[in-house]
């Protein structure tokens, strides 16, 4: 079996190859990231050096009032832009592994062991972020968006259909054009294929896929299947959105005050190597930590909602409050079997 110790890992954690592999795996691993449905908030929007337990996305109310008429006797009134608070909560998370666990994960990979560890860690945190995104969607659709942005029970007793997708799209009215992707469970995706909902320039499913590489669309929406979108009481939630329908951010955490050899930050993920000399004759350990936010712009984390929320708290409808006009909340839900 391959041997892996802190000495093997310490120097290589600082290598650009390790950091690049970790960053690339994190941002490409899952459909929420790969589809563009969830994107990283720019530093100008969410400061990665922000402190505290809560933050706010800068949001301004749209001024739809008429311009003032210019006359020989007019004085131009000065109007103020008004903002609304779009609050989110930071989450503090960590995960540790023993060196032996990592050896079992990458055993037999030879010189690729360090790269495989980077892949393992990147995939783990990408999955953890996606789980939080799904629970955020559960929470905001439990109450605040349950009518304005969801088809509710209208199509929940049948398989996915064009009528259902259209109904979900037009929850945003004339802003339906902002929706470009549709995320669904593989069972729902299979129903869409079977019922010829996925179409190509040349027509329904056929040789076009193999010739052009075009995966097809559903009424102008690019489909992505992800089995983390599990059913509740036999009903699947399919989500329509566009690029940046959800935002995430990894912020800075306090670094090691003693040394940076066994601690590294890459892509917002902090890794620290340690050794517990008292356990099992000495155990080498790797600890990973993130401070992150996941948010749907326009639906705020409530003023009375807890800090550093759990998955269950994210999925609780009472913790969320709609603060933006409906059309500015770029997500819709279709419920089907």
Strand-pairing-aware structural class: alpha+beta
Return Rg in Å: 24 Å
Under CATH at level 1, the class stands as: Alpha Beta
Portion in strands: 25-35%
Indicate the low-confidence ranges by residue numbers.
Answer: none
Binned, the helix content reads: 25-40%
CATH architectural grouping: Alpha-Beta Complex
Beta-strand segment tally? 16
Q: Number of helix segments?
A: 9
The name CATH uses for the topology is phage-related protein like fold
| Count of separate structural domains | 1
Cα shape? globular
Order of helices and strands: HHHEEEEHHHEHEEHEEEEEEEHEE
Distance between the termini: 47 Å
* Main β sheet profile: 6 strands, mixed
Task: Break the fold down into its secondary structure elements and pairings.
Blueprint: H1 6-12, H2 16-28, H3 31-34, E1 38-40, E2 54-60, E3 83-89, E4 91-98, H4 99-106, H5 113-142, H6 162-169, E5 181-184, H7 186-194, E6 199-200, E7 203-204, H8 208-212, E8 222-225, E9 236-241, E10 246-250, E11 263-266, E12 269-276, E13 283-295, E14 299-301, H9 311-314, E15 320-322, E16 331-336
Parallel strand pairs: 1-10, 5-8
Antiparallel strand pairs: 2-3, 4-13, 5-9, 6-7, 9-16, 10-13, 11-12, 12-13, 14-15
Helix pairs in contact: 2-5, 4-5
């Amino acid at each position: 079996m391959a041997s892996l110790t802190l000495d093997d890992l310490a120097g290589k954690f600082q290598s650009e190859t390790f950091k690049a592999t970790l960053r690339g795996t994190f941002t490409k691993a899952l459909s929420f990231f790969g589809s563009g449905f969830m994107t990283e908030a720019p530093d100008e929007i969410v400061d990665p050096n922000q402190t505290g337990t809560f933050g706010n996305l800068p949001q301004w109310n749209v001024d739809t009032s008429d311009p003032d008429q210019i006359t020989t006797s007019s004085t131009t009134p000065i109007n103020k832009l008004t903002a609304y608070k779009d609050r989110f909560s930071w989450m503090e998370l960590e995960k540790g592994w023993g060196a032996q666990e990592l050896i079992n994960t990458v055993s037999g990979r030879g010189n690729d062991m360090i790269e495989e560890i980077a892949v393992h860690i990147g995939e783990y945190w990408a999955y953890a972020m996606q789980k939080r995104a799904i629970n955020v969607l559960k929470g905001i659709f439990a109450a605040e968006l349950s009518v304005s942005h969801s088809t509710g029970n209208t199509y929940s007793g049948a398989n996915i259909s064009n009528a259902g997708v259209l109904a979900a799209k037009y929850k945003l009215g004339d802003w339906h054009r902002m929706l470009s992707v549709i995320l669904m469970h593989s069972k729902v995706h299979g129903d869409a294929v079977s019922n010829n909902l996925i179409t190509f320039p040349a027509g329904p499913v056929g040789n076009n896929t193999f010739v052009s590489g075009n995966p097809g669309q559903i009424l102008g929406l690019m489909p992505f299947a992800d089995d983390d979108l599990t059913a509740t009481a036999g009903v699947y939630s399919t989500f329509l959105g566009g690029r940046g329908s959800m935002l995430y951010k990894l912020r800075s955490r306090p670094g090691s005050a003693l040394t940076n050899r066994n601690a590294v930050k890459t892509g917002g993920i902090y890794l620290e190597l340690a050794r517990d000399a008292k356990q099992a004759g000495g155990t080498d350990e790797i600890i990973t930590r993130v401070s992150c936010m996941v948010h749907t712009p326009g639906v705020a984390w409530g003023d009375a909602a807890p800090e550093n929320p759990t998955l269950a708290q994210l999925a609780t409808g009472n913790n969320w409050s709609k603060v933006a006009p409906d059309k500015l909340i770029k997500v819709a839900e279709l419920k089907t079997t």
